[in-house]
Amino acid sequence: MKAFVSIAATALAYAAYGFDPDAWLSKRAALGREAERVRALYLTAAECAGIPVEGLEVPLKLRDDGSPQATLWAERAKLVRDLHCVRAEDVTVVFHGDGGAEEGRATVSGGVVETLSKEDVSAWVEGHAKVEAKGVTLEGDGMFFSPPEGWVKIASNVKVVARDVEIGTSAADIAGLSKKKRKGGSK
User: Fold this and answer.
1) Cα 92 vs. chain centroid, distance in angstroms?
2) Which tens digits make up the pLDDT trace of 38-59?
């Protein structure tokens, strides 16, 4: 009975706040295709000639004031100009707050970051990845990132840990739509 009440409350919250399941499913399908395209790019880049780089550091997205929102460091990388991408190994991405302080980080064993547009960076991680930010840890193998969409897809061995998060009992809390403060910060 509790499961039914939770599902019903979530459905009511989604309806009350204008959640469109068809739009979400359509977006999910489109981003799934994008994940496969970027994974194919990763595999293709392995076969292409490129410029080898040791100790690569690249700002991934800049704010209006020129400061980076995230910075990528890679022990080894290959710049593949023909594919407009970077294929990197032993990667750390640091996410910076407004003042430049570290707000989170991702560590990955390998992957590719597209560089077609500084506004539309997406990445595929072929190996293991771990992302830690704002009290949440995502971990798994075969991970696709689309920062502009706020989307992460994990293919296997998924682990998600949320620290210091209180889950409420109202429909808005269950749907994640509550404006009330949660333990560890505001929503």
Assistant:
1) 13
2) 888 888 888 888 999 999 998 8
Burial category of 108 from C-beta neighbours within 10 Å (exposed 0-12, middle 13-18, buried 19 and up) = buried
Question: What are the structure tokens assigned to 70, written together?
Answer: 């995230």
Q: Whole-model pTM?
A: 0.67
Domain regions of the chain by residue span: 2-166
First-to-last CA distance in the chain? 29
DSSP per-residue string spanning 69-80: EEEEEEEEEEEE
* C-alpha–C-alpha distance, residues 169 and 185, integer Å: 18
- CA-CA distances (angstroms) from residue 28 to 22, 72, 133? 10, 26, 23
Q: Which CATH architecture has domain 2-166?
A: Sandwich (2.60)
The pLDDT score that the predictor gives to residue 165 is 62
